[in-house]
Amino acid sequence: DQQVKQNSPSLSVQEGRISILNCDYTNSMFDYFLWYKKYPAEGPTFLISISSIKDKNEDGRFTVFLNKSAKHLSLHIVPSQPGDSAVYFCAASARYGNKLVFGAGTILRVKS
Amino acid sequence: NAGVTQTPKFQVLKTGQSMTLQCAQDMNHNSMYWYRQDPGMGLRLIYYSASEGTTDKGEVPNGYNVSRLNKREFSLRLESAAPSQTSVYFCASSDEPRGSYEQYFGPGTRLTVT
Fold first, then answer.
1. What is the 8-class DSSP label of residue A82?
2. Bridge pairing between strands B104-105 and B42-49
3. pLDDT tens over chain A, length 112 residues
4. Can you tell me the distance from the alpha carbon of B32 to that of B23, in angstroms, rounded to the nearest whole number?
5. Looking at the complex, does the CB of residue B96 fall below 8 Å from at least one CB of chain A?
6. Is the minimum CB–CB distance between A45 and chain B shorter than 8 Å?
7. How far apart are CA A45 and CA A38, in angstroms?
8. Which residues numbered 61-100 in A keep a CB inside 8 Å of some CB on B?
9. Do the beta carbons of residue B106 and residue B4 sit within 8 Å?
């Protein structure tokens, strides 16, 4: 039973446009959410996170939105750049837990 | 400051062979983790260690053992490798100040079992 789902295996976007990556979760105990970015042959690197007490967190070109009632979060990248092409993983953690549950990932391709 | 390091980077094993994947971190983190990444399945937790001297099973522990040698080092052992253990293995560490669950990952070990 996948507790964190990224239903789009891949996404292709033109340079300069917005990229929107989506993530759904089923466990209502999750209270902290993270996005990781992964380039080929490298480990995942932390991108941005959001606590369940917020509905939006912004860091430069990256914004994460959280809709708790829908158990849905999204990552917006504006404007998208070719260097953003990577696999993006959504992850979630439950209160007082230190284990992360990851989604399957979405491959983002930004075309120049 | 190297962060999280893993050795080896690549390994090919025959079915039934054993090996140990090494991981070390220099960030003085309390918690360390081993994940495997398979196509279409994201990262799945194999084992983790919340602090030196403790280890716990994750989602997919069968066929693996771990040792938290000290605060810096966390090793993963395959006693009798099987083709189903062909995967990319990532080690990670974290230090959980209140409200943050960010984990730092190593570069990975690509393991093929024939």
1. G
2. unpaired
3. 789 999 999 999 999 999 999 999 999 999 999 999 999 999 999 999 999 999 999 999 999 999 999 999 999 999 999 999 999 999 998 865 668 899 999 999 999 9
4. 9
5. yes
6. yes
7. 6
8. 89, 93, 97-100
9. yes
